[in-house]
């Protein structure tokens, strides 16, 4: 066997921070020249909300490529939502909206989330309580309170999204919140806020 060695080919790192949106899309897909067609079908934020099937149809790309791109969007959402998630102080509706917005605002279906708080109003843990359709989500009072107890909450906040873009609470939102607030105070784990977020960034407080 020869003792001569062959230098391995070197790879050049790409500065992803300096890349354009088009460049990042082509890095993910590995298909040169495809980005203008994808971005030409809508704003990046709107594309990020689409399912792989819808993205494939809209951008006229293969379903496998659309799935890769949707996975990249989802990783970005999760990374953004994870920053400072634990320990964030949720003391008013604006803070609750900023905390849950990255996770919920881009969805095309409704989700209801809870954040368990400690005695200082800081997040102990956050979790999804229920996933619904485009126009509603339902979860029972007992399930919400059970989750708060399970997370050792001193108090808690709720957030859900309105994919329609209208943050105004429905009558169901208001009635459920008021009933839950009374029950939560009776158990000494008060519901401190319930906030609705939307894709545009607008929000509304059902309870603050």
Describe this structure in words.
The radius of gyration is 22 Å and the shape is elongated. The chain has a five-stranded mixed sheet. The chain has two domains: 16-81; 84-207, Cytidine Deaminase, domain 2 (3-Layer(aba) Sandwich), CATH 3.40.140.10. With 208 residues, the protein is of the alpha+beta class. α4 (52-59) crosses α5 (63-82) and α5 (63-82) packs antiparallel against α6. The chain is 41% helix and 17% strand. It starts with 20 loop residues before the first helix and ends with a strand. The mean pLDDT is 86. It has helices at 21-29, 35-39, 44-48, 52-59, 63-82, 93-104, 141-150, 171-186; strands at residues 111-117, 123-131, 155-161, 191-197, 203-207. 27% of the residues are buried. β1 and β2 form a beta hairpin. It has eight helices and five strands.
Structural class assignment:
alpha+beta
Radius of gyration: 22 Å
Tell me which CATH architecture of the largest domain applies here. Answer: 3-Layer(aba) Sandwich
Q: Return the CATH class of the largest domain.
A: Alpha Beta
Beta strand %: 15-25%
In the sheet with the most strands, the strands line up as: 2-1-3-4-5
What portion of residues is helical? 40-55%
Name of the CATH superfamily of the largest domain? Cytidine Deaminase, domain 2
- What order do the helices and strands follow? HHHHHHEEHEHEE
The counted number of beta strands is: 5
**What are the low-pLDDT stretches, counting only 5+ consecutive residues below 50?**
none
- Average pLDDT for all residues: 86
> What gap, in angstroms, lies between the N and C termini?
76 Å
The outline comes out as elongated
Q: Count of helices?
A: 8
């Amino acid at each position: 066997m020869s003792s001569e060695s062959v230098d391995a080919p070197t790879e050049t790192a790409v500065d992803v921070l300096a890349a354009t949106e088009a460049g990042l899309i082509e890095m993910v897909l590995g298909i040169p020249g495809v980005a203008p067609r994808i971005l030409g079908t809508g704003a990046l934020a709107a594309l990020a909300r689409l399912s792989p099937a819808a993205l494939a149809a809209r951008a006229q790309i293969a379903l496998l490529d659309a799935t890769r791109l949707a996975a990249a969007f989802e990783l970005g959402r999760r990374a953004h939502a994870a920053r400072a998630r634990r320990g964030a102080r949720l003391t008013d509706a604006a803070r609750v909206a900023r905390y849950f917005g990255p996770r919920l605002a881009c969805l095309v279906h409704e989700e209801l989330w809870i954040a368990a708080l400690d005695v200082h109003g800081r997040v102990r843990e956050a979790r999804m309580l229920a996933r619904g359709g485009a126009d509603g989500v339902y979860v029972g009072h007992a399930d919400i309170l059970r989750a708060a107890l399970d997370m050792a909450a001193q108090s808690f906040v709720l957030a859900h999204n309105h994919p329609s873009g209208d943050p105004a609470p429905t009558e169901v939102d208001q009635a459920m919140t008021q009933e839950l607030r009374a029950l939560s105070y009776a158990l000494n784990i008060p519901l401190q806020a319930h906030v609705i977020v939307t894709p545009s960034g607008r929000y509304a407080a059902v309870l603050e």
